[in-house]
Known about the structure:
The chain contains ten helices and no strands. The chain has helices at about 1-5, 15, 25-35, 40-55, 70-80, 100-110, 115-125, 130-145, 155-165, 170-185. The longest helix is centred in the first third of the chain and has 14 residues, at about 40-55.
Amino acid sequence: MSSNRNKLNKNLKASEFKEYYFLKEELKEFCRNEGLKLSGSKSQLEERIICYLDTGKSSDDSNPTKNNTNFQKSNLNKAIASEEITLDSILGENFKCSEDKREFFEKEIGKGFKFKVQFQKWLKSNPDKTYQDAINAYYELQNSKEKTKIDKQFQYNQYIRDFFEDNDDRTLNDAIKCWKHKKSLKGHNKYEKSDLDILN
């Protein structure tokens, strides 16, 4: 595959381009370097590159991109902004917890993914890291013994969380019943195994 990658450059003839198989990431890398759009399917990227190799122009715009530096930079910035997120993508400065990033993490981690405070802090503190690094950090934070301390006004949240850590086969209704019973008693409101007696 490396020989194909070496052959993919702006001096390649369109007819020669068609004779080789390129990965989508290789096509996107070429488009990124030449200031072409990165969006679309693999076949759309191939058509865009063929047009560019034949004419020196993007099939998405009639303006030449080879000799217009400003246009190329503008096009490149737009392409990067609209680029699909991959595991190798860099987080970048001023990381924002946007919907597309949430969808990416949900796809890689699962529907239970949430932008928790500790994870958000990590994302904003590591702009040079990749999304793969971020996923690794997410799991480390999840497995860490240092759990976020919940303030007194959120004792309900603490109780429910502790309840499910000890009873993952129980329902939320069960947890709420136990909580209501617990808070009616004197003393602390922390979850205890004996709280389950109310369900029997």
